[in-house]
Design goal:
CATH topology: Rossmann fold
CATH superfamily: P-loop containing nucleotide triphosphate hydrolases
Helix content: 25-40%
CATH architecture: 3-Layer(aba) Sandwich
Strand content: 15-25%
Bound molecules: adenosine-5'-diphosphate, guanosine-5'-monophosphate
CATH class: Alpha Beta
Structural class: alpha/beta
Shape: globular
Strand order of the largest sheet: 2-7-1-8-9
Length: 187
């Protein structure tokens, strides 16, 4: 299990898209109660679900972690994770800091990576550049980012997303994805 976490706007989705170019990596499709954004596909980006569906799954213990993020519920489903790990895949979670801390507290085995911005001005520029937040929401996310920043030492690894290529290469190395696949012997 490879957990990619860090403040909003730091580049988690961008980094994860790059990691997913490797066929050995499987994305954890989270469930969420938020509405899809243009271009997002149900079942690929998220399972877009109702609050009732979400609450019922919480009571059934279907999530390994869940959290409320900016007014919406998000959670990682246990069943697809177990199936992917059985197949020997790297199961990639892109989750917020609250969720990663829950998994760490549970002692869930995995590689926990906190993505750091080069500095907070860059984080502000990236969030503003994405043009998906109103100015109020942007300020709220930056404030939260400062709190999340204090939790970074709880992770196994901290990787600065300055240059995207370098950041992705460092994570691939940490996750052991750079090791060549075992040679095949034809008989
Ligand atoms: P998150 O998923 O953490 O909220 P995103 O992946 O949406 O963040 O990235 C936020 C913005 O920053 C996007 O516009 C993205 O293109 C940009 N971005 C991501 N990584 C880099 C980088 N290394 N250098 C410059 N811009 C980046
Ligand atoms: P967005 O709505 O922008 O896709 O995601 C908002 C935040 O929720 C991001 O920080 C993202 O990493 C986080 N997130 C997505 N899925 C999950 C999940 O299953 N669990 C938790 N805890 N956070 C999630």
């Amino acid at each position: 299990m490879l957990v990619i976490s860090g403040p909003s706007g730091v580049g988690k989705s961008t980094v994860c898209k790059r990691l997913l170019a490797d066929p050995r990596v499987r994305f954890s499709v989270s469930a969420t109660t938020r509405s899809p954004r243009p271009g997002e596909v149900d079942g690929r980006d998220y399972h877009f679900v109702t609050r009732e569906w979400f609450r019922e799954r919480i009571s059934k213990g279907a999530f390994i972690e869940h959290a409320e993020v900016y007014g919406n519920m998000y959670g990682t489903l246990r069943e697809p994770m177990e199936a992917a790990l059985q197949r020997g895949e790297t199961f990639l979670l892109e989750i917020d800091v609250q969720g990663a801390l829950q998994l760490l507290a549970l002692g869930e085995p995995g590689i926990y990576v906190f993505i750091e911005p080069p500095d907070f001005d860059v984080l502000r520029q990236r969030l503003a550049g994405r043009k998906t937040e109103t100015p109020e929401v942007l300020e709220r996310r930056l404030k939260k980012a400062e709190d999340e920043w204090r939790e970074r030492f709880k992770y196994n690894y901290r990787v600065v997303n300055d240059d995207l290529e370098r950041c992705v290469a460092e994570i691939r190395q940490i996750a052991g994805l750079d090791q060549a696949a075992a040679p095949r012997h034809n008989v």
